Amino acid sequence: MNKHKKEPLEQVLLVKHSSAERGSAVSRGRSRGQGRGYSHDGNRGHGRNQEDERGNDEKPGGNPRGNNPSLFEDFKNDMAREFEMTDIGLMSFYLGLEVRQSDDGIFIGQQAYVKEVLDRFNMSNSKPVATPMEARAKLSKDEEGEKVDPTLFKSLVGCLRYLTCTRADILFSVGIISRFMEVPTTIHMKVAKRILRYLKGTIDFGLFYSSSKEFQLIGYCDSDFAGDIDDRKSTTGFVFFMGSNAISWSSKKQTIVTLSSCEAEYVTLTT
Questions:
Q1: pLDDT (tens digit per residue) in 21-40
Q2: Which parts of this chain are annotated as the region Disordered (predicted)?
């Protein structure tokens, strides 16, 4: 039986290369630094960690801070040598998401996509409203009114759901109309188009992630009680902030029927 000498994790940390054929590893050893690796300039190196010689801005333990521009450039150069890629600069547009980066932070919105949706459903000249849904509005699957094209209604709901990537303010309303895609009526369509009218007046809304050193995680949650008049289930809603930046949000109907508002709140907390 071969005996292998165990070394402290503080001394040697191996990062496996993505390609199994090359089987190379980068040694991040702080004291011994054994093993053969790759330096930022693409040359093989031995012995001490060459990144430390180049003044790499790292925290104790070898974790990069992520605020050193030279690290980004070195990483892009390494990736360009390994894969066919092109550096087109800072992100400005991606799958309908518009990104504006500045010294103060990053703004993410979907202004162009909102205009496209308004044009698609002939709502570009509609009159804006202040809220995406009327207060205390209740919808049912058995609403009176003529049936509308389910395909058209599903297409509208799908577009609105994609907008919730940056528009948490319409998430609850979109979740409500999503419950009636099987047999939609003119009442359901009217509620859906009200959301479009709200978007018409808030096209410039989006998410702003400011530069901050505050990393406190704060969450807010709430629920209604028996909000769905068809099955008497409640709706859970929550949003989490990292400092002043929203990082996660949801609005979803609960899976069980609660017997009191207190029980509905407990279900929300445990979701």
A1: 444 333 333 333 443 333 34
A2: 1-73
Q: How many CB atoms lie within 10 A of CB 254?
A: 19
Q: What angle do CA 255, 225, 249 make, to 5 degrees?
A: 65
Residue 51: per-residue pLDDT: 41
Please answer whether residues 249 and 168 qualify as being in contact, where contact means their C-beta atoms are separated by less than 8 angstroms: yes
Question: How far is it, in rounded angstroms, from Cα 144 to Cα 91?
Answer: 47
CA distance linking residue 34 with residue 27, whole number of Å: 6
Phi, psi of 211 (to 5 degrees): -75, 120
| Ranges of each domain in the chain | 14-82, 108-206, 212-270
CA 101, CA 111: separation in Å to the nearest integer? 16
DSSP string spanning 173-224?
A: HHHHHGGG-SS-BHHHHHHHHHHHHHHHH-TT-EEEEE--S---EEEEEEE-
The answer to whether 171 touches 249, Cβ cutoff 8 Å, is: yes
| pTM, to two decimals | 0.66
pLDDT tens digits, residue range 222-246?
A: 888 888 888 888 899 999 998 888 9
Of 66, 67, 36, give the one whose Cα is nearest residue 50: 36
Kindly list the distances between the CA atom of residue 54 and the CA atoms of 25, 32, 39, 58, in Å, as whole numbers in the listed order: 19, 18, 10, 11
What local confidence, expressed as pLDDT, does residue 67 receive? 65
Q: Strand pairing of 44-45 and 37-38?
A: antiparallel
Query: C-alpha angle 176/178/179, rounded to 5°?
Result: 75
